[in-house]
Amino acid sequence: MTRLFPLLAGLLLFPVFQTEAAEKYSIIPEPEKTELKRNATRTLKLLSDKTSPALGKDAYRLAVTPQGVHLASGGREGRMYGLVTLQQLQDQLAAQPEGIPCGVITDKPRYPWRGMMVDPARHFIPIEDLKKFVDLMAYYKFNKLHVHLTDNQGWRLPVPGYPRLQSVASKREESFGDGIPHEGMYTKQELKDLVAYCAARGIEVIPEIDVPGHNQALHAAYPEFFCFPKPDMKVRTVAGNSKELVCPQKPEVWKFYAAVFKELKDIFPSNTVHLGGDEAPTELWKKCPLCREARTKAGMKDEQEQMRAFFAKMTALLDKNGQTPQFWYEGNAGIYHPGETVYAWRQDQARQAIEKTKKAGLNLIMASNEYCYLDFPQFPGQYNWGWMQTTTLQKCYELDPAFGKSTAEAGHIRGVHAPVWAEHLPDLNHLLYRVYPRAMALAEAGWSPMEVRSWENFQRKVADHRPFVLKRFNYDLKRTKDNEPPFRWENKK
Fold first, then answer.
1. What pairing do the DSSP bridges indicate for beta strands 150-151 and 154-155?
2. Average pLDDT of the segment spanning 462-477
3. Of 101, 128, 376, 484, which sits with the fewest C-beta atoms within 10 Å of its C-beta?
4. b/e code 218-247 from CB counts within 10 Å (16+ = b)
5. How many CB atoms within 10 Å of residue 482?
6. In what order do the strands lie in the sheet with 46-51?
7. For 247, what's the count of Cα atoms within 13 Å in the CB-facing half-sphere?
8. What is the CA radius of gyration of the chain?
9. CA 324 → CA 247, 339, 376, 468, distances in Å?
10. What is the pLDDT of residue 492?
11. Residue 10 pLDDT > 60
């Protein structure tokens, strides 16, 4: 704990106490409507906490008076969000004991989906560290935690009957030539505990099992699942992808994924399963005799038709458990099915994705990497592995998920998502350094109407929130070009 969250006394470049009562609230994300009064209050005691269904289930109204606070909420979600806003106001009052304004906050989210993705497949994240990550998510009203459980560099989900997932697929010899073995596998109970922890904070956990590609770790454990089995395959030790796709023509593949999806159903109350689906080169399917025979028999013209059939069969397998899929959007709407949800992630394709997914009848979550990938460096000159673009706090804040389009054009957008890929983020300290304060900008992009957002006001609030977070979470949000935790493989590109 001491190592992860050092108290860096003296580094905060702003006063903790003001000499006069505050003139504005410092709430992130900015509420939909705020009416400030002339008078101030020095107490935020909760005087009433009532249900008002007319507000809507995720909406709330907070009335701040000289005597204390009255909360009305439309449902469980709205009450949680109202209490989080009250927490932030209490933190502001603690920093400004001379008082904060009275007023009325009427609030609800712009979008129902405000997610963050963690990537324990690449670098394992212990459950206790994930809980710390979740605490900060809840403070900024994120409501979806997407857990990327499988990839080339590791498999983290236990599946009964498949012991080599733990003995082989969860372990790799090193990372980027550092010579240090890396491993990790969650237990079923640990994941259930995480789900319960998130649920108590209004956060739904979305598991991801990547198919058909990003599966070199699975190949190392069960080569018989692949078109061209390689018994000497190793779990990948560097970043990037491989050509290894599971073979859709092998019955043992479908038996395996039926077991995987059953285990997901037992652990995660969410009916949503992210299936990845991106960066899946089909050249081995093209060469595979079983795949060629299947295409000929079904009259398929190419491997893309085979990919669509693969996802249809996966979706049918999920449907038996009442589960529905999500995918990383690859720009080819033809491999998806109307009503499914996809994530726009590729750089400079967000606007096109809005139009193409609307036409295809797909739901869209905005995760465009030039705004939303929080593993990217946040200052020019920071460690970027030689190819990552720099995404500043201001760049994140500029995101309008609809890009100015009308509801008729962009009403299928479900919200905002912040992936944090962890090839180069070995622990929670590195993870949180990259995520904050940029996640605060994306929280506002997913919650606040464009007309109440202001870069100047947001900068003021971020400065205010530094002592809030330091006091409440024992974590310092100070960011400079040079204060990132060092990487042990920084010069081994």
1. antiparallel
2. 97
3. 128
4. bbbbbeebbbeeeeebebbbeeebbebbbb
5. 7
6. 33-41, 100-107, 60-65, 68-73, 46-51
7. 23
8. 24
9. 22, 10, 30, 39
10. 53
11. no
Distance of CA 218 to the CA centre of its chain: 23
Q: How far apart are CA 211 and CA 274, in angstroms?
A: 9
What's the average model confidence in pLDDT over 378-393?
A: 90
Residue 38, judged by CB atoms within 10 A of its CB (0-12, 13-18, 19+), counts as exposed
Closest CA to 152 of 125, 181, 121: 121
Tokens of 10: 């003296």
Residue linked to tokens 């529905």: 324
Displacement of CA 276 from its chain's centroid (Å): 13
Residue pLDDT, tens place only, 409-460: 999 999 999 999 999 999 999 999 999 999 999 999 999 999 999 999 999 9
User: Which residue type sits at 297?
Assistant: K
Are 159 and 259 in contact by the 8 Å Cβ rule? The answer is yes
- What is the DSSP code string of 63-109? EEETTEEEEEESSHHHHHHHHHHHHHHHHHHHH-TT-EEEEEEEE--
Report the candidate in 36, 49, 97, 46 with the shortest Cα–Cα distance to residue 68. Answer: 46
Residues near 274 by beta carbon (within 8 Å), at least 6 away in sequence: 146, 148, 206, 207, 208, 209, 325, 326, 327
* Torsion over CA: 279, 122, 134, 30 (sign): negative
Residue 447's identity, in one-letter code, is W
* Mean per-residue pLDDT over the chain, rounded: 93
Q: Quick one: average pLDDT of 279-308? A: 94
Rounded Cα–Cα distance for residues 106 and 452 (Å): 13
CA pair distance 104, 73, nearest whole angstrom:
13
CB atoms closer than 10 angstroms to residue 75: 16
Q: Which residues are catalytic?
A: 151, 214, 279
The dihedral built from the CA positions of residue 45, 48, 54 and 57, taken in this order, carries a sign that is positive
Tokens of 471: 């006091």
Whose CA is closest to 97, among 27, 30, 15? 15
In sequence order, what are the residues at sequence separation of 6 or more whose Cβ sits closer than 8 angstroms to the Cβ of residue 285? 227, 245, 247, 248, 291, 303, 306
pLDDT tens digits, one per residue of 59-70: 999 999 999 999
What pTM value is reported for the model? 0.94
